Amino acid sequence: MNIALIAHDKKKDDIVKLATAYKDVLAKHRLFATGTTGGRIIDATGLDIHRFKSGPLGGDQQIGAYISDNKIDMVCFIRDPLTPQAHEPDISALLRLCDVYEIPLATNMSSAEMLLRGLDAGFLDWRNVAKESDRDELNF
Ligand SMILES: O=C(CO)COP(=O)(O)O
């Protein structure tokens, strides 16, 4: 599965803790992240992560584009609900695309933990079917 990891600045320590605790689960998948979040997780865990631009510089939009291309299977976006973000429209667009494409989305630590456990238990395997039928339709 392709997993996107994102966290706002005040939640970076949290996502590093999450990635450290679930390193063995995450290591079985292809990982993507916004720039600063990805750097922090790589430094702490050594996981292999494709880093997009930083969120405020377009990283959320890049992940949104991947979602619309059916290239992301799950998003853990640990949001800071108490700090205004300059790029709020980009954040809303990303969350909206998760709903448009039925992509599992966690926006806080406890739901992220549940999604990661579900991922490891195979609850997301239906995404392979979704991707296969998409491939058939597009004649890949
Ligand atoms: O701003 C973000 C998400 O909206 C995260 O971006 P960074 O990981 O680059 O800090």
TrEMBL record:
InterPro entries in UniProt: Methylgl_synth, Methylglyoxal_synth_AS, MGS-like_dom, MGS-like_dom_sf
EC identifiers of the protein: 4.2.3.3
CDD domains attached to this UniProt entry: MGS (cd01422)
GO molecular function: methylglyoxal synthase activity
Top-level taxon of the source organism: Bacteria
Keywords: Lyase
The keyword Lyase is assigned to this record: yes
Family annotation (SUPFAM superfamilies): Methylglyoxal synthase-like
Chemical reaction(s) catalysed: dihydroxyacetone phosphate = methylglyoxal + phosphate
Domain (MGS-like) ranges: 1-140
Binding positions for substrate per the UniProt entry: 8, 12, 34-37, 54-55, 87
Enzyme class: lyase
GO cellular component labels: cytosol
Active-site residues, record numbering mapped to chain: 60 (proton donor/acceptor)
GO biological process: methylglyoxal biosynthetic process
Listed Pfam families: MGS
Stored PANTHER family: METHYLGLYOXAL SYNTHASE
Family: Belongs to the methylglyoxal synthase family.
HAMAP family linked: Methylglyoxal_synth
Main function: Catalyzes the formation of methylglyoxal from dihydroxyacetone phosphate.
Protein name (Swiss-Prot/TrEMBL): Methylglyoxal synthase
Source organism of this protein record: Fundicoccus ignavus
Gene: mgsA
